[in-house]
């Protein structure tokens, strides 16, 4: 029978992690991650690699929770679930940022975006990297404090994580505003009628729904860490599955259903379209076809 233990006298867990719940989400995220890998390779959508890696992080995190069911006094399972589940949504967000840039490029709608497409990915992914580093540093400090390091403030790691999450929420809020503003402006533009079969509206709706899911998850984590290790959300398990596992499952499922494969990823890295003028971009296939006609 599983019992609640301590690590060097420090309680890593305030409850015994559910083995069945963790096993279910290991299976769910394994299926979704394999499905994403299949679509990514099939359509050469290499800019979705961060999304795939995020799915892998989710698998590792819930494997850690499953192992911890009978090992609440061991550090490694706790570190795996704590760190990997904390950082996975940052990787999902990176692909969402790049998808918006490709939507704008695919419909030639740069004039309707408050941030030029060529800078949109750079700005938001840079913010993502900063958030990743800050949260990873905070997670590391929490682990060190849990090992009984007397020279480390036991609350410092949580404060740093909260700071990284708040920064991520701000960046994500700006991203959502950018996407919503683009949609409102572009749908009134004459070019919107000439977008052909590019499902830009469906992909934008997918981005809005997945962004809302990631945003809600981040708010939950901010509240969780702000309440402290003795707070209510750290002493119950249902919050992790209701406001993290379920929301990230929805994010991966929606992204898979409305996969941005019709945005014509460019040659080379599958993500950078060719530019022939400051206000216009073309996919590699159109550029190549034009070259044949000229010859």
UniProtKB/TrEMBL annotation:
Residues 273-295 are annotated as: Disordered. It comes from the Eukaryota. Residues 286-295 have a biased composition (Basic residues). The chain crosses the membrane at residues 12-32, 44-63, 75-98, 119-139, 159-182, 203-220, 240-259. Keywords: Membrane, Transmembrane, Transmembrane helix. It is a multi-pass membrane protein. Its main location: membrane. PANTHER family: DOMAIN PROTEIN, PUTATIVE (AFU_ORTHOLOGUE AFUA_3G01030)-RELATED, PROTEIN RTA1-RELATED. This is RTA1-domain-containing protein. It comes from Bionectria ochroleuca. The lineage of its organism: Eukaryota, Fungi, Dikarya, Ascomycota, Pezizomycotina.
């Amino acid at each position: 029978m599983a019992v609640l233990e301590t690590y060097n006298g420090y309680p890593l867990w305030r409850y015994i992690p559910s083995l069945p719940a963790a096993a279910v989400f290991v299976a769910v995220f394994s299926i979704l991650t394999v499905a994403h890998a299949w679509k990514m390779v099939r359509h050469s959508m290499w800019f979705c690699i961060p999304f795939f890696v995020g799915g892998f992080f989710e698998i590792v995190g819930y494997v850690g929770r499953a192992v911890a069911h009978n090992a609440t006094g061991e550090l490694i399972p706790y570190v795996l679930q704590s760190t990997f589940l904390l950082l996975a949504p940052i990787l999902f967000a990176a692909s969402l940022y790049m998808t918006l840039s490709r939507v704008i490029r695919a419909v030639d709608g740069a004039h309707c975006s408050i941030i030029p497409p060529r800078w949109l990915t750079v700005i938001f992914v840079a913010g993502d990297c900063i958030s990743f580093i800050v949260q990873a540093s905070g997670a590391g400090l929490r682990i060190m404090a849990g090992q009984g390091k007397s020279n480390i403030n036991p609350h410092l790691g949580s404060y740093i994580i909260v700071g990284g999450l708040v920064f991520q929420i701000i960046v994500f809020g700006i991203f959502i505003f950018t996407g919503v503003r683009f949609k409102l402006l572009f749908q009134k533009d004459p070019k919107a009628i000439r977008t052909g079969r590019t499902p830009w509206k469906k992909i934008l709706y997918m981005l809005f729904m997945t962004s809302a899911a990631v945003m809600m998850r981040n708010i939950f984590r901010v509240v969780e860490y702000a309440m402290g290790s003795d707070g209510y959300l750290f002493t119950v398990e249902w919050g992790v599955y209701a406001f993290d596992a379920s929301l990230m499952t929805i994010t991966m499922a929606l992204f898979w259903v409305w996969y941005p494969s019709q945005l014509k990823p460019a040659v080379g890295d599958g993500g950078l379209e060719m530019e022939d003028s400051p206000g216009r971009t073309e996919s590699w296939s159109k550029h190549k076809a034009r070259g044949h006609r000229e010859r």
